[in-house]
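Researcher: Dear colleague, please comment on this protein.
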Amino acid sequence: MAWYDEAVFYHIYPLGLTGAPKLNDYGEPVHRLNTLLPWIDHIQKIGCNAIYIGPLFESVGHGYETTDYRKLDSRLGTNEDLKNFVKTCHDKGIRVILDGVFNHVGRDFFAFKDLQQYREGSRYRDWFCDVNFWGNNEYNDGFSYGNWGGYNLLVKLNHWNQEVRNYILDVVRFWVSEFDIDGLRLDAADVLHFDMMKDLRVLADSIKPEFWLMGEVIHGEYNRWVNEGTLHSVTNYHLHKALYSGCNDHNFFEIAHTVKRLYGMGGNRPDGLKLYNFTDNHDVERIHTKLQNKEHFHAVHVMEYTLPGVPSIYYGSEFAIDGEKHRGGSDDAIRPALNLEDFASAYTENPATVLLSKLGRIRRAVPALSYGDYRELFLTTKQYAYARVLGDVQAVCTVNNDESDYVMTVNCGPAAEYVGCISGQRVSVNNGQISVNVKAGQGEIWVPADVYEHQVLPAFAAGADEKDVAACQCQEYAGQEQKETENGSVDGTCGSEVCSKEEESCTEADSSEKIDACCCAGADPLENTDAACFPGEADSASEKKTENIRKIVILDGYTENPGDLSWGGFEEFGEVTVYDRTSPEDTAERLKGAEIALTNKTVITGEILDVCPDLKYIGVLATGYNVVDLEDCRRRGITVTNIPNYSTAAVAQMTFALLLEITQQVGRHNASVKQGDWAACPDFSYCLTPLVELAGKTFGICGYGQIGHAVARVAKAFGMKVLVSSGHPDWNDRNVDAYVSREDLLRQADVVSLHCPLKSDTEGMINEDSIALMKDGAILLNTGRGPLVVEADVAAALNSGKLTAYGCDVVSVEPVHSDNPLLACENAYMTPHIAWAAKECRARLMDIAVNNLKGYLQGQPQNKLN
């Protein structure tokens, strides 16, 4: 048993909560972190005993572009402020974990600044992924690099490099020695190098007792990350989605199935997967906003606190505040600045705070909710019951998302009487079962009466004062006389003017009196409350401010999305019109009035821009951008972006698909078999053409960017010798046998593969003269750009036998013209520019395009070309 097994987390995004400026000017520290010290008492008061806070360290803007891992962000204060914050938490029995943003850094990080200055000569060039000195980016660095999520402001660290891993481990050691933290939440853990996580686990096990490692993982088999060798826990996005959609759709089967699957993933043991459960966080919209029926706030949180896992509350959600991502994707509304004094009355007047304060104390008072086995008891689309069983204690949880109450009969433990921890209602056990009335949209946690009296009530009392939410149980823990009503609820008075009212007068009280009166009468604190209890819910749609709707036009969407993807990602930014194809004659007309245009191959000329003055943004749905004049757009103030690095693996796959077809002739032999040649063959096997084994052959790569690297890895896996011609050799790449000049590569390679960009010095690089240098019978592959080769010269070499075969996915003019000389060559293997077209690639392209537009609208364009 570790501290985190019984933790109830409070999640703080400090730059938002403190109202820090959006951008860091790296000026004198402003001690905003100290404004969070009063929140520590609040966090304790609502039953939380652990804080996840971050990001905290010096960064450019939102905190995840770290520039100095050893210095508190100057917008928040100094390292002394952070030390004092953690110590204050520890003095009050609250553990603290920080955000470990180790997948990427900001562009002001010292090692990246060195790379910018010294380029190939930088000692830190291998600290970053996929550095390509032949590339460029929207910052005009004169090189490109791997990033996170398509954002070049987030530079991806190379965790293959042990020096980088050692640096990160030293950072963690510093955080523990300097600030005495209790664990880490690893940002973007789903893309972190597993060796990095293994190193961190070894460090965690040695650096401090019960040092907790939790990782941000969206989807996948969570036990890949949660095991003895890597992390203790990951974010439970599976359950997060199931909780709100299960309520919105009246489908508790989704929740139960998710729980069952995750529990099985952990070996059907309560200690198998201790996942970090949440209803909302700094990246998703507030749960109160997402729920269609706000009363389901009650049921959702009962489940979050009682299902297997470690529960957490995101700051402000204990007050049921709303938070919706704005048009354009801004996260500001879900990361607001809050003043704790504005919520001073929430402990008695806000039903959400009442509920979560109780749940925090119940969770910590009933060990079965942390350590108990999970057993499903009852399930319909609208009702769900399950037990958490620890020894002889069985805590029974019941939830109902129907619009009316529901009487549920479920199995329970051997006790004679059970009590609802939230309401105080008592029920008798008959034949090992209890029959309980579950309120519409709500839930309850039923425990044996002795557990309630000896563990739950003292937990309420321990945190109570005259205004505390637990005061609704005042008559019980004050030892005052109780009486049981006919329906099994507890009635009593606590002597206050409000509680002396008759129960039926609750609805006549003002909002604060109403809650206290109903609560002290033994009713559920959320019963009979209305929308006024939830801030902001009273606003009707007709009162909301209308916004100007942007017009977004997609000119040629069919190749990107023939119907198997969704354009929905763009719809949050404006009114979207999608055309499968657009002719040159129709382009201007379709773009009239549009602010945003998306195009793949439809050309947008200066003449078109002349008649489309509203156009402010052009998103090219491809890597190549010759369909727009960048300089003309720059003069007009039109931002142009493209989509780099979305199909690396797929292009490498296509390269070898062409090569294997050439060497194995799979298609030809398949056709032969289908027409009966094998059935008529006198031998058990036959070959229509000589076959070629790749192992031992020399594979030459012209152009060594990300695709070139991927191709080299595959070639090496086939047992081939890899030669590379590149102006920027990667000396640490073990997949390369030698770097040679282009001429030497052509002379030595059995297979030549083209992956260089189309520039003045590469256009027509494969021509009559360069082909003459190649081995007789060599194979030429081109999945780069059609104009890299002089097609007439390649056709002549194929016809003469100088080249055995030419495999290409691109031609000089696309679609291919009927007079292209390669069409007449039997040993030219041609595909219609489809290397990029796998659904996974197109989905990735779509995501990057959406993020490009989002960045532009937020004033932080990414993949900008002009």
Summary: The longest helix spans residues 839-857. Confidence is low (pLDDT under 50) at residues 465-547. The longest strand covers residues 383-390.
